[in-house]
Amino acid sequence: MKTILLTITLALANLFLTAQTNSTEVSTEGTSITVTVSLRGTGGHILFGLHDESTFMKAPLKSASSEIIDGKSTYTFNNVAPGSYGIMVVHDKNDNKRMDFEPSGMPKEAYGMSNNTMSYGPPQFSDAEFEVTTSPLDIEIRL
Known about the structure:
Immunoglobulin-like; 8 strands; 2 helices
């Protein structure tokens, strides 16, 4: 159990430590992915990370932060090349640009991923995976 919690902790910390940097484009040509996060909490920001299979649970291809307004936060990833991707998000309540954890390793802040799959243990790319074509996508993630 400790190994699983440590793996989740390290992976999510790595993802969200990169969220404060300016996002880098995945491609100069592509489509857009608009991600809307619905949550009950207020305050802080939502951190977004766009991943492919090789970067999942590591540094994202592209990351961003967005304000929470009326229980929702929205961000659009532009110029995303066709392919398979996954999105991970965290509610950064204290605006420290990273996910916080209890001493036991359990997350203090809410998080989620595309397809809204939550399971025990580290998230898997196959659970968050979706296909990008040439058509814009709208994705909703619940925390």
